Amino acid sequence: MNGAISCRALLFDLDGTLVDSAQDLWRTLNHLLAAKGLERVPLERVRHLVGHGARALLARGVHGEKAVPPSHDPEFETDVQQFLAYYQDHLTDHTRPFPGVPETLRALAGQGFSMAVVTNKIESFSRTILEQLGLAELFPVVVGGDTLPWRKPDPQPLLHALEQLGVPPGEGVMIGDSETDFQAARNARLPVILCSWGYNRGEDVGALHPDHVVDRFGQLPGFLYLSRETRITSS
Predict the structure, then answer these.
(1) Catalytic, out of 13, 24, 181, 211
(2) pTM listed for this prediction
């Protein structure tokens, strides 16, 4: 592990990092499976499927963990729309921040860090969740899975978030819970901190060799220090 990371911007994953959303996703998936006459899936399975967006979650929930979303399949597209319509009405029925998240985020904001959410969840859903949980004011930038043509692990969502914050790429750090977050950070040439409690398929995130692993959200400030302000300027 390296020492504390000098940075100005903190890019957070949402599901499995800031919020525990698995139960609402699980209930939505099982609602759709029941309507199709299919066997329901257990909650722990859904925890291992979250992170690649609704289409991937639905494909894996119906066809198995290695399934990929089919293309040009009208029935699947109908299922996706039904999934999203139901989930939109139940975004925060059971979704809550993980312990220590609100107070730690506010402490980091008070120290002067700029913060953004970079997630593969639909942007509008992500913003609604943040608003309903009282966290929206902390994130002037939210990059969702539909914000750009690219999604994590592509580096573009991370680089776009930094650009929107007005922070150079070398001044950011990614904080997530999965291999997808790790790969996105490395592809963007950013440091990465991984949370051990997230939706990581039961794997040891330390085996990915991130810059740091945290076991409690409140540990995060100990691995960060605010660098001197450097803003992007147009030539």
Answers:
(1) 13
(2) 0.91
